[in-house]
């Protein structure tokens, strides 16, 4: 059952067509002119408008235009005894649903009405589905966003906990991880890496020495020379760090980079003597940042060296111990007048898009 607005200035036609429609269980409201029809449409919603074209006063085409100007997509059937080019053009322009020629014959009239109502039903269904789909999409997006944020927050928490634990046990490297992370991130920026890679490198730097937790603290804080056995114990921190990062549920690339932060470009590093082609870019950056930071910092067994000495070291071993591109980026960075290696807290911030 549909609600139909029937507009015709001839009373007999209104009565006849209303009877046809009511017999099919449709609800009919009639109007004898365009003004009345518009005021009715202003108050009530209809499934269908059927209008004569030529009436005293405004025409059915004016009504059609006004309906569309209102922003209504209600189907409109136009009835006319004298079809003209103007009727056809305006009918198309303002999306009339169909035409009926007068005099209207019952069977044809009902066929057209049912066809138009059927199309309307399909369009309504489609609209409803689109709304539901949009709603679903929005919910889904919100859910993904929530989970991603929760995951990142969890990682950030794990990272700062790991960083604190190691710095608490090993006061000499207090701040070292943070400075290495920040320096590595700046090198990554200088190399033109993506924001995500920059922040990944920073996080990796913040935890790269976490494996030192397996090294007895007497060895870590021992001033002066250390024995070969002690050195072997210290070297275990790279592999231990890899295992700890994996267990903490951080991304595998973080764990791999931590495990590789003492490997060297030419394969002379530890623990696995990996060569350049097998070392992650993140680790190559970390290596340079770690070396530079270590050299310019005070250690219990030696005083801090100058920035120039550190730059000389990486320049001399460029392509031997260190990745040339990383060295170039680091030198560019350190040559900037206002650059200082700092340990101020940088918020670990990664946007959702970058994680997708
Ligand atoms: Fe280390």
Assign a percent range to the helix content: 55-70%
Distance, first to last CA: 49 Å
Q: How many domains would you count in the coordinates? A: 2
Q: Within the largest sheet, what's the order of strands? A: 2-1-3-4-5
**What CATH architecture of the largest domain would you give?**
Orthogonal Bundle
- Name the CATH class of the largest domain: Mainly Alpha
Mean pLDDT: 87
Shape: rod-shaped
Superfamily at the CATH H level of the largest domain? Hypothetical protein af1432
The name CATH uses for the topology of the largest domain is Hypothetical protein af1432
Please write the string of helix (H) and strand (E) elements.
EHEHEHEHEHHHHHHHHHHH
The small-molecule ligands in this entry are: fe (ii) ion
Judged by helices, strands and strand pairing, the structural class is alpha/beta
Query: How many β-strand runs?
Result: 5
Rg (CA only): 39 Å
Describe this structure in words.
By secondary structure, this protein is an alpha/beta fold. It has 15 helices and five strands. The chain has helices at residues 11-23, 34-43, 60-69, 85-93, 106-169, 176-190, 195-207, 217-220, 228-235, 237-247, 252-259, 281-296, 307-316, 324-335, 352-355; strands spanning 3-7, 27-31, 48-52, 76-80, 98-101. The chain has a five-stranded parallel sheet, sandwiched between helices. Helix 13 packs antiparallel against helix 14. It is rod-shaped, with a radius of gyration of 39 Å. The two termini are 49 Å apart. Mean pLDDT is 87; it is low at 345-356. The site of fe (ii) ion (FE2) has 5 residues, from loops. Residues 208-209, 237, 261-262 line the site of fe (ii) ion (FE2).
């Amino acid at each position: 059952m549909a609600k139909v607005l029937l507009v015709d200035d001839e009373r007999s036609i209104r009565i006849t067509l209303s009877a046809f429609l009511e017999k099919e269980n449709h609800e009919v409201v009639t109007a004898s002119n365009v003004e009345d029809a518009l005021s009715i449409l202003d108050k009530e919603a209809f499934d269908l408008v059927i209008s004569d074209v030529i009436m005293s006063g405004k025409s059915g085409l004016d009504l059609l235009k006004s309906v569309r100007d209102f922003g209504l997509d209600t189907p409109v059937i136009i009835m006319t005894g004298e079809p003209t080019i103007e009727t056809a053009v305006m009918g198309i322009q303002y999306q009339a649903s169909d035409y009926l020629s007068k005099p209207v014959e019952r069977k044809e009239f009902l066929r057209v009405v049912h066809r138009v109502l059927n199309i309307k039903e399909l369009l309504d269904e489609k609209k409803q589905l689109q709304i539901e789909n949009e709603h679903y999409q929005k919910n889904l997006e919100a859910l993904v966003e929530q989970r991603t944020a929760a995951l990142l927050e969890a990682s950030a928490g794990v990272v700062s906990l790991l960083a604190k634990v190691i710095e608490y046990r090993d006061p000499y490297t207090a701040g070292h991880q943070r400075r290495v992370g920040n320096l590595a991130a700046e090198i990554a920026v200088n190399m033109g890496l993506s924001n995500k890679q920059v922040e990944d490198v920073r996080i990796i730097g913040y935890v790269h020495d976490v494996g030192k937790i397996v090294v007895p603290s007497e060895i870590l804080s021992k001033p002066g020379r250390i024995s070969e056995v002690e050195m072997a114990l210290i070297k275990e921190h790279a592999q231990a760090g890899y295992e700890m990062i994996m267990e903490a549920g951080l991304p595998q690339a973080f764990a791999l980079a931590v495990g590789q932060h003492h490997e060297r470009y030419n394969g002379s590093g530890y623990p696995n003597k990996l060569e350049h082609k097998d070392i992650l870019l993140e680790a190559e950056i970390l290596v340079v940042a770690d070396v530079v930071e270590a050299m310019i910092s005070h250690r219990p067994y030696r005083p801090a060296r100058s920035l120039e000495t550190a730059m000389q070291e990486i320049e001399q071993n460029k392509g031997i111990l260190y990745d040339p591109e990383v060295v170039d980026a680091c030198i560019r960075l350190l040559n900037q007048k206002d650059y200082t290696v700092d340990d101020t807290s940088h918020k670990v911030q990664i946007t959702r898009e970058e994680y997708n």
